[in-house]
Write a structure and sequence with these properties.
Length: 151
């Protein structure tokens, strides 16, 4: 199997305010696959009739499914393959439904040179409204001297 190529960034490659974004449209298959992986078959996620009678009026995506798209940015783009995901805080603000396009964004909030860590402000938005937000802490090594960029 062939996988997409991840960025190869190091601590010295970052600047405050740097942003990476991805988009994903939530599909029924995403919800059912996530339910199968996690074992969370709450009827709010998998039962149309039950969800129709709920306060939401229809099925919704798992909050952790929506927030899981953050890891795609961290593992593939910002910082990419050199990062080690250490922690993540999450606040679930609004429901996400089948057919919603989720814009996932990570913004460089802090760079800790001493500990070789970065903090990303993370968010998921639907139609410009924040549905999930939080912070990710990631260890990122410094560039090895043998790989210093040439001038």
């Amino acid at each position: 199997m062939t996988y997409p190529t991840a960025t190869d960034l190091f601590l010295d490659d970052f600047c405050l305010g740097q942003v990476a974004e991805r988009r994903h449209v939530i599909e029924d298959a995403d919800i059912l696959t996530f339910a199968g992986i996690t074992g969370d078959y709450s009827p709010l996620h998998v039962d149309d009739e039950f969800a129709r009678r709920s306060r939401f009026g229809r099925r919704l995506a798992h909050g952790l499914l929506t927030s899981s798209f953050i890891t795609g940015i961290i593992g593939m783009e910002l910082p990419g393959r050199n990062g080690i995901y250490m922690s993540q805080t999450l606040r679930f603000r609004r429901p996400v439904f089948i057919g919603d396009e989720v814009l996932v964004r990570a913004t460089m909030a802090t760079i800790d040179e001493e500990k070789s860590r970065i903090t990303l402000a993370t968010s998921c938005l639907v139609d410009g409204e924040v549905v999930v937000d939080g912070e990710a802490l990631i260890f990122v090594p410094r560039r090895p001297h043998s790989q210093a960029p040439s001038s």
